[in-house]
Amino acid sequence: MSEARDVWMVGDVLEAMSGAKIPDFIVSAVQEVQSWLSAALSEEAFVEPANLLSSNDRQISADLEYLFNRLEWLSVHADMVPLTKDSSKREDAIVLSVGPMLLDEGMRMMVDHAALFANGVCKRVWLISDTWVIGDVLPYMPHMKTLKKRGVELHFLMVTPWGYSEIPWTRE
User: Fold this and answer.
1) Alpha carbons 49 and 57: distance in angstroms, whole number
2) Nearest to residue 67, comparing CAs of 78, 79, 77, 80?
3) N or C: the chain end with fewer CB closer than 10 Å?
4) R_g over Cα of the chain
């Protein structure tokens, strides 16, 4: 005797495999970061430093303030770290660790915001970064486990000019 089953479409299976749904405002934020990274890689964004050892070396000049200004609208949805200017705390927080900001700085801001500045209010932190360095993540694993026990969801979104992906923090 066979049981009745719901109809599953390919998209349903792929969505179920991908884990938690990323909110639309986070997707929009990631797309802004992608656009900013893409502009930083364009020929116009490269500047020639005066005293280079090799003529093939180029330094990327990226306007981080421009990106932050483009993301100000997110403050109605989430606390923006390091941009939060008011004292209102939201359940979501977005931590930006892109361009010249080191991943270690982003990890520290994520833990500080969730554990100290928005303790008891923050339920989800979205760390948006253009780098992944295991040596920067490992020292924060005990902090992340403690935040998880407190009910704070931590999400890591790796962004490149060509796409993004959520990278799991744990094996679960």
Assistant:
1) 9
2) 80
3) N
4) 19
**Any residues with CB less than 8 A from the CB of 3 and at least 6 apart, and which?**
none
> What residues have CB less than 8 Å from 85, skipping those under 6 apart?
75
Place of tokens 């005293």: 51
Q: Tens digits of per-residue pLDDT, 40-89? A: 887 554 555 544 444 444 444 567 888 888 999 999 999 998 876 666 68
In the beta sheet, which residues pair with residue 157?
128, 166
Q: Which amino acid is at 7?
A: V
Inter-residue long-range contacts of 110-113, CB under 8 Å, 24+ positions, other chains counted: 110/81, 110/140, 110/154, 111/140, 111/143, 111/144, 111/147, 113/79, 113/81
Question: Residue 66: what are its φ and ψ, rounded to 5°?
Answer: -60, -45
State phi, psi for 29 to the nearest 5 degrees.
-65, -45
DSSP one-letter string for 5-29:
-----HHHHHHHHH-SPPPHHHHHH
- From the list 111, 109, 102, the residue with the least C-alpha distance to 143 is 111
Chain centre to alpha carbon of residue 108: 13
